[in-house]
C-alpha cells in the first residue's frame, strides 16, 4: 500500500469542463484536491475564491486541500472552512501572527498547514513545528502553474525531514510546483508525503492513469 498522498491541483483543470474534471478526480486514486487561492497581492496572479469553491465542493468527493496565497489569510479562515476546506495552509511570509492563525485554523476544525516560499529557510519554522499538521514546501515561486521545479527543494525536504525526526514530530510534508512522474520518486525518497500535481496531471493524455502512476511510484519507494 502506498503511504503518500496525491493531490491534483485544480488550477490546471479545464474550467469549461469543471464537472467532467471533478468526475475524473472522483474516479481516480487522488487523495485530495488541491485548491490554490491567489489574491494578486501576495502573488502576482488572481485565481479563484468562494463561489468556485462552493461549486467544487458539490462536485468533488475528495477532501479539499486549500493553499492560501493571500495576505491576511486570518480574515478568511472560517469562510474557507464553511466553504468546505479540509486542510487550510497559510504562507509563513503572509502571516504576522502565524501561531495565532494556526490555532484559529485548528479551532475551525480544519487541518492546519504552513507554506514556505522557495527561498524561505525551514529553520524559521522551529517554533511552530509542534503546532502544524502539514508543511508545504513551494518548489516554484507561487503564483502560477506549469513552472519548472526548483531542484534545491530536494535537500530542503531532507533537512526538514531530519529536523522532524530529531524532534519526534510527523506533520505531512507537501511539495507544490513542477511535480510529476519525472521527480516524484526523488521527492518521496527525500521525505515528501503529499505530492501536488497540476499540469503533470491535467495536461496529461490520461490524467487518471497519471494519478495512478504517481501513487504507484510510492509503492516502489516504500517497498524497501
Ligand atoms: O500553488 C501553486 C502555484 O503557486 C500550484 O499548486 C502549483 O503551481 C501546481 O501546478 P504545477 O503542478 O503545474 O506546477
Ligand atoms: Fe498550491
From TrEMBL:
The active site is at 36 (proton acceptor), 176 (proton donor). GO terms for biological process: pentose catabolic process; pentose-phosphate shunt. CDD domains: RPE. It comes from the Bacteria. Its cofactor is Mn(2+); Fe(2+); Zn(2+); Co(2+). PROSITE patterns: RIBUL_P_3_EPIMER_1, RIBUL_P_3_EPIMER_2. Binds 1 divalent metal cation per subunit. SUPFAM superfamilies: Ribulose-phoshate binding barrel. GO terms for cellular component: cytoplasm. Keywords: Carbohydrate metabolism, Cobalt, Isomerase, Manganese, Metal-binding, Zinc. Substrate binds at residues 9, 67, 143-146, 176-178. GO terms for molecular function: D-ribulose-phosphate 3-epimerase activity; metal ion binding. Its EC number is 5.1.3.1. Pfam families: Ribul_P_3_epim. Pathway: Carbohydrate degradation. It catalyses: D-ribulose 5-phosphate = D-xylulose 5-phosphate. A divalent metal cation binds at residues 34, 36, 67, 176. Belongs to the ribulose-phosphate 3-epimerase family. Catalyzes the reversible epimerization of D-ribulose 5-phosphate to D-xylulose 5-phosphate. PANTHER family: RIBULOSE-5-PHOSPHATE-3-EPIMERASE (PTHR11749). This is Ribulose-phosphate 3-epimerase.
Amino acid at each position: 500500500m502506498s503511504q503518500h498522498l496525491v493531490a491534483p491541483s485544480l488550477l490546471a483543470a479545464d474550467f469549461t469542463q469543471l464537472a467532467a474534471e471533478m468526475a475524473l478526480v472522483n474516479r481516480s486514486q487522488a487523495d485530495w484536491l488541491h485548491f490554490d487561492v491567489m489574491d494578486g497581492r501576495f502573488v502576482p496572479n488572481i485565481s479563484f475564491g468562494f463561489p468556485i469553491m462552493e461549486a467544487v465542493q458539490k462536485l468533488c468527493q475528495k477532501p479539499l486541500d486549500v493553499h492560501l496565497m493571500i495576505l491576511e489569510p486570518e480574515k478568511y479562515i472560517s469562510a474557507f472552512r464553511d466553504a468546505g476546506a479540509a486542510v487550510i495552509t497559510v504562507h509563513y511570509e503572509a502571516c504576522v501572527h502565524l501561531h495565532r492563525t494556526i490555532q484559529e485554523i485548528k479551532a475551525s476544525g480544519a487541518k492546519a498547514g504552513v507554506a514556505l516560499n522557495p527561498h524561505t529557510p525551514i529553520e524559521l519554522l522551529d517554533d511552530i513545528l509542534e503546532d502544524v499538521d502539514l508543511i508545504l514546501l513551494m518548489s516554484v515561486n507561487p503564483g502560477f502553474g506549469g513552472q519548472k521545479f526548483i531542484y534545491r527543494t530536494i535537500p530542503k525536504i531532507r533537512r526538514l525531514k531530519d529536523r522532524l525526526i530529531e524532534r519526534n514530530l510527523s506533520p505531512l510534508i507537501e511539495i507544490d510546483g513542477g511535480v510529476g512522474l519525472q521527480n516524484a520518486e526523488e521527492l518521496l525518497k527525500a521525505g515528501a508525503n503529499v505530492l501536488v500535481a497540476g499540469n503533470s496531471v491535467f495536461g496529461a493524455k490520461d490524467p487518471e492513469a497519471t494519478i495512478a502512476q504517481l501513487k504507484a511510484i510510492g509503492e516502489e519507494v516504500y517497498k524497501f
